[in-house]
Design goal:
With 117 residues, this protein is an alpha/beta fold. The protein is built from three helices and six strands. It has a six-stranded mixed β-sheet with strand order 1-2-3-4-5-6, covered by helices on one side.
Length: 117
């Protein structure tokens, strides 16, 4: 499994096994947890693989609704529970919602590393 991709005309979510990078692009405005299920499954698969470090690149994610933030929060908690997995969240200062929302994830996982572009 080199890369897993979930996409439509509004968003693109992928995981590259070689770089251990999850990449989210576009706008995730799915309505409710049911529509997020394929993305949740991808995130859970990645967490269960227990790579030494997970890079989560959101530098091109323009919008994430409250259901998406909930999904992201649950993923961060799941990674934290693995205890042996480091996580680096890559965000963009150019996208207003990311500053506050991504910093809040450190409350869920104090060891979470944030990188800004």
């Amino acid at each position: 499994m080199a890369e897993i991709t979930i996409e439509n005309e509004e968003y693109h979510v992928s995981y590259n096994n070689e770089t251990t990078t999850i990449r989210c692009k576009g706008a995730l405005r799915l309505s409710g947890m049911e529509e997020y299920e394929p993305i949740v499954e991808l995130f859970n698969q990645v967490a269960d693989m227990k790579p030494l470090k997970i890079y989560f690149n959101m530098t091109e994610l323009k919008f994430l609704n409250s259901s998406g933030i909930n999904v992201l929060s649950k993923f961060v908690i799941r990674v934290r529970q693995k205890q042996t997995v480091e996580m680096v969240l890559q965000g963009s200062n150019k996208i207003p919602w990311q500053g506050k929302s991504l910093k809040n994830l450190r409350r869920l996982m104090p060891s979470l590393q944030l990188e800004w572009e």
